[in-house]
Specification:
Shape of chain A: globular
Order of helices and strands of chain B: HHHHHHHHHHH
Structural class of chain B: mainly alpha
Oligomer: heterodimer
Strand content of chain B: under 5%
Helix content of chain A: under 10%
Shape of chain B: elongated
Number of helices of chain B: 11
Number of helices of chain A: 5
Radius of gyration of chain B: 28 Å
Strand content of chain A: over 45%
Structural class of chain A: mainly beta
Radius of gyration of chain A: 30 Å
Largest sheet of chain A: 26 strands, antiparallel, barrel
Number of strands of chain A: 34
Distance between the termini of chain B: 55 Å
Number of strands of chain B: 0
Chain lengths: 732, 299
């Protein structure tokens, strides 16, 4: 019974939403008060309930229809109005002719409250220091300089919509959405001349506007849509400037922030039915993404530090442009009564027309500049891709309600300026769905995917982007990325997936659902260490040959079991459990450009990254009498991350890496008392407890490292109780 | 699509056998919540209420035959099974159910229904939609996910992890990204043509194009992120630095180092690359940099 699932999910949410569906239909006003037991930014990361203390509970829904001609209507709805994360929507119109709507979603995203910083101006885009923070490195800093600062930002979403009919077969839809974000997020930042880095809060102040306009035609035989999408991102800030905490000169570091950009897209979709069982559909879309934000200068410190960077920028802005084209054609048909077929073709092209130019590479703002003709000139390398994909899928009812499905897919993808020039991917899949009995429906499916492609060249990007002679032909040791590395997004692989699921209606009151699935992806070469590229120096080639590096394999699986039990009409219960595991095995090799001797396989290391999650939940809803509803849910998620590192004989024996873990408990109880037809009282209780350990954060002090000024931020943990009581006045 | 015992209540034998049934509501009282839905709006010429024809003579029954087909035989002998042409929900076959719905609702995103994943797996419209409910849960952001989780159990579990989108808080429905009626997306039946186009709906700051691209980011956000939730913030599939080392092993840098337990001591030489934000302590522009000197994604 999906109703049960609805209860399961909704009741396990924070208390501010109701488990009673009827409130969605009725007019009501809800007013009450809640109490949060503790301050916790992390607990209220999305609800906005970050502070200890009382808070208002407020919401309403009001639908009005003209009784004489009930096509006219208007409705207003508000939820969570007492919190920073809240919603409001108003709509109205004449059903069947036109509808207009406005909505507002306010959403708060909180990151951490335990971070400490030394800079002044926190929350702005310009951080300063009263004086140099340390003499030699962050560990020598006086910790008393650190001050707490909460990292959080808000997103306000405004939506306007208008849709309507233009006669019997035509309709239109126009919508506008604007997202406004402001607040702070965390970022790393590296400095020169101190050579150190710091974790800092940078300011967010941006806006995204989106417009969609669609004209549609619909008849029994044919459907057609013509539309336009526009999206524009505008950043109120273009840079984040920070004084180097380790520089006696007070030199500045500067980070470029997300550039203004926009995207225009037109699209047309159509479908036509031939006869009763054959349908042809086609979609074409053409979009242009553009970005032309003015470049920042090479250095925030002018010519004071980067004096030798005198040539200036090759252009004042990028004039970046990517043209995206899609053509999709699909034919679905039913050649015989029990068979369905679909054949589809897709063409996708991403043509990156961004101008290519040479730019000076200066690692950090305070670093000494280099002559333009020097060793660190880099050329940008905009990548284009083209993909052609053909697929054939079909199913056949081999017996009553027993369906066998099969699919075949071939894709050819071409890349420019990438590790490979092209890849071919083939996928074969089967699925069998069969009722074992009237009460049990089972399915099992299998798929195999293979990717192969052109010769692999890990350093094609670097050779295209470096003008430095050290990376050019004839220079020894010019490799910058190990040629044996196979990036998983380009590499050959074989992947097998298996899935089985079953639904069992045990009795009128008990049902079970279960599923298991697993996958294994084995990465392959090709030709690790056998470089066809004549530019690679032979000595280095020999030293680097052998095992492929990077992701070696990936696997995972999950198992779920759901039990639903309804012993009486007024009592529903459920329980579920899910176990999942994903793993990645990767190979690395400690090496340098100076390695010209062989046997570097002894410098290999392996990493086995395994992530396990176990989620259990149960709950019930009980209506002992007409006026009372009681319910509760409990959900626990236990996550564990393991990083197993092993080394070959050329490296020191690896020390174990501790497991990371998290335990998230959520308990929710609620009661509803219908005092009268017009008045209900609601009582809610929420307990949420998060405990976690993360070696990257836990017990890592802000000033504990010689090269990075951390924040002292700890792995999140909180334990909050929230109580709420509210009155719901319904119907008028 | 779901029934309760009350809704299923059969007429008494005497009334059923005598042919005295004067209204569908006599037996199917619970289903009449549909009278409070958009389908029952008289002023809209497209609705079943406007286009239907009552077989009992009772105007309240106009809507029933619009979707369930010719119910004459069922009205004559209501206790005989199999006389309702279109039965919605699990009891009925998906194809006739969907034909009934698509008769009016073939426009919009339903253009792609034929051949979509849900159509191929024989889902009916009523598998997800509750047509008799005044407010269909799958059409409400706060309750939509619970309908999807009826089948997608793994996704429900992922949503209870530590790093997720605000779906549990009712601000991010499944259909914000997915098109359950089918689409032209490369995979995942997404609202937009690609994974990245879908993500840029809310994260347009990452769209670029950037002067210095980071290939996995421009290729597919899900190379690194699992948008349904993980226990590695921000929704990463593998934690850094191991995430990055799946592609990077440079000679002049430090990405070839075996980051084992010895590197976790804050005073160790490699700790700066594994603690805190790990690689992103310095290479923070992992989605691309537009700084003229941002080739190493540090600026």
């Amino acid at each position: 019974d999906p109703l049960l699932t609805i209860k399961l999910f909704r009741d396990s949410e924070v208390m501010f939403r109701d488990a009673d569906m009827s409130r969605w239909a009725d007019n009501y006003v809800e007013l009450g008060v809640g109490y949060n037991s503790k301050d916790s930014v992390r607990f209220g990361q999305f609800s906005g309930l970050t502070d200890k203390g009382a808070f208002p509970i407020a919401g309403f829904n009001w639908l009005s229809r003209d009784q004489a001609n009930d096509a006219q209507y208007w409705q207003i709805h508000g939820a969570n109005l007492g919190l920073d994360s809240r919603k409001f929507k108003a709509e109205g119109g004449v059903q069947g002719r036109w509808d207009a709507s406005f909505s507002f979603d306010g959403l708060k995203k909180s990151q951490t409250e335990s971070a400490m910083f030394i800079h002044q101006g926190l929350g702005t885009s310009n951080l300063t220091l009263p004086a140099r923070a340390w003499v030699t490195n962050p560990t020598t800093m006086n910790p008393a300089l650190l001050q707490p600062f909460e990292i959080q930002h808000g997103r306000d979403i405004y939506r306007l919509g208008l849709k309507g009919l233009l006669g019997n077969e035509w309709d239109y839809k126009v919508s506008y959405r604007e997202d406004r974000r402001d607040g702070t997020r965390m970022t790393g930042m590296s400095f020169a001349p101190s050579g150190e880095a710091a974790i800092l809060p940078y300011q967010i102040d941006d806006r995204t506007q989106q417009i969609e306009a669609v004209l549609s035609y619909t008849s029994k035989l044919a459907q057609f849509q013509l539309g336009y999408n526009y999206s524009r991102f505008s950043n109120g800030l273009n840079a984040f400037t920070v004084q180097d905490p380790g520089s006696i000169l007070g030199t500045l570091g500067r980070l470029s922030l997300a550039p203004d950009n926009d995207h225009h897209q037109i699209f047309a979709t159509g479908a036509y039915r031939f006869g009763k069982t054959t349908r042809l559909s086609a979609t074409y879309s053409y979009g242009i993404a553009r970005q032309n934000e003015a470049f920042l200068p090479y250095s925030a410190n002018g010519t004071t530090v980067a004096a030798s960077t005198t040539a200036g920028l090759p252009r004042s802005s990028l004039d970046g442009k990517v043209v995206n084209t899609l053509l999709d054609i699909a034919l679905t048909t039913k050649p015989i009564d029990k068979m369905n077929l679909k054949v589809a073709y897709q063409y996708r092209d991403s043509d990156n027309r961004t101008p290519i130019a040479q730019y000076a590479y200066i690692g950090r703002d305070g670093a000494a500049g280099v002559p333009v003709a020097g060793a660190t000139i880099r050329t940008n390398a905009p990548v284009s891709t083209t993909e052609n994909k053909l697929s054939l899928e079909g199913d056949y009812e081999i017996a009553a309600k027993t369906v066998l499905r099969a699919g075949l897919e071939h894709s050819n993808k071409k890349y420019s300026l990438s590790d490979r020039t092209d890849t071919q991917t083939n996928k074969l899949s089967f699925e069998l769905r069969r009722p074992i009995s009237d009460e049990f429906l089972g399915s099992v499916g299998y798929s195999r995917t293979q990717r192969r492609g052109a010769d692999y060249d890990k350093n094609v990007y670097f050779r295209n982007t470096y003008t430095d002679p050290v990376f050019q032909a004839g220079a020894t040791g010019r490799l910058t990325n190990n040629p044996s590395m196979r990036s998983f997004m380009y590499a050959d692989f074989n992947e097998d997936r298996l899935r089985a699921a079953g639904n069992w209606t045990v009795s009128e009151t008990v049902s079970l659902q279960g599923s298991v699935d697993g996958y294994q992806q084995k990465m392959r070469g090709p030709n690790c260490g056998q470089f066809s590229d004549a530019l690679q120096p032979l000595a280095v080639t020999a030293a680097l040959s052998g095992t492929c590096l990077g992701r070696e394999s990936a696997d995972g699986g999950s198992a779920s079991l759901d039990l639903q039990y309804q012993p009486e009409e007024n009592l529903t219960t459920f329980a579920f459990t899910n176990f999942s595991q994903t793993g990645v095995r990767e190979t690395g090799r400690v090496w340098s450009r100076g390695n010209t001797s062989g046997a570097l396989e002894t410098n290999n290391w392996n990493g086995d990254m395994i992530y396990r999650d176990h989620t259990v939940g149960f709950g019930l809803k009980w209506q002992p009498e007409e006026k009372w509803d009681f319910g509760g849910t409990y959900v626990l998620n236990r996550g564990t991350g393991m990083s197993g590192i092993t080394t070959n004989s050329g490296l020191a024996a690896a020390q174990p890496v501790p497991d990371t873990w998290s335990r998230l408990h959520t308990l929710q109880l609620f009661a509803k008392w219908d005092y009268s037809k017009q008045l209900s009282w609601r009582f809610n209780y929420l307990y949420e407890n998060l405990n976690s350990y993360d070696w990257a954060l836990s017990d890592v002090g802000a000033t504990s490292n010689v090269n990075v000024l951390f924040t002292g931020q700890q792995a999140p943990r909180y334990s909050n109780h929230v109580f709420g009581v509210s009155a719901v006045v319904k119907s008028w | 699509a779901q029934t309760t015992q009350k809704e299923d209540a059969a007429p008494t034998r005497s009334r059923a056998d005598s042919g005295e049934i004067k209204s569908c509501v006599e037996c199917h009282e619970g289903f009449y919540a549909i009278a409070r839905t958009k389908h029952a709006v008289k002023g809209d010429a497209r609705t079943p209420e406007s286009t239907g024809k009552s077989l009992t003579g009772n105007p309240e029954d106009k809507m029933c035959s619009s979707c369930h087909g010719d119910l004459s035989a069922h009205l004559k002998t209501p206790r005989v099974k199999g006389l309702v042409p279109v039965v919605f929900g699990k009891k009925g076959s998906a194809e006739p159910q969907n034909e009934a719905c698509l008769g009016c609702h073939q426009s919009g995103s339903r253009i792609h229904w034929q051949g979509s994943k849900h159509e191929q797996t024989k889902q009916s419209c009523a598998s997800c939609h509750r047509l008799h409910a005044p407010k269909d849960p799958v059409m409400v952001a706060e309750t939509q996910a619970s309908v999807c989780f009826d089948c997608h159990k793994d996704r429900r579990a992922e949503l209870h992890r530590v790093s997720t989108h605000p779906t549990k808080n009712g601000f991010f429905s499944c259909s914000a990204c997915h098109a359950p009626h089918g689409s032209t997306a490369q995979r995942g039946s997404l609202q937009k043509n690609t994974v990245n186009e879908t993500c840029y709906t809310c994260h347009a700051q990452l769209r670029g194009p950037f002067l210095w691209e980071h290939r996995p980011s421009q290729d597919d956000c899900t190379n690194c992120h699992n948008p349904h939730g993980t226990n590695i913030a921000p929704m990463l599939k593998v934690r850094m630095p191991y995430l990055c080392q799946q592609c990077h092993s440079t000679a002049i840098g430090h990405s070839n180092v075996a980051f084992d337990g010895s590197t976790l001591a804050p005073t160790s030489g490699s700790a700066q690359r594994i603690l805190g934000n790990a690689c992103a302590n310095c290479h923070m522009k992992v989605h691309g940099s537009n700084h003229p000197s941002g080739a190493r994604l540090q600026r």
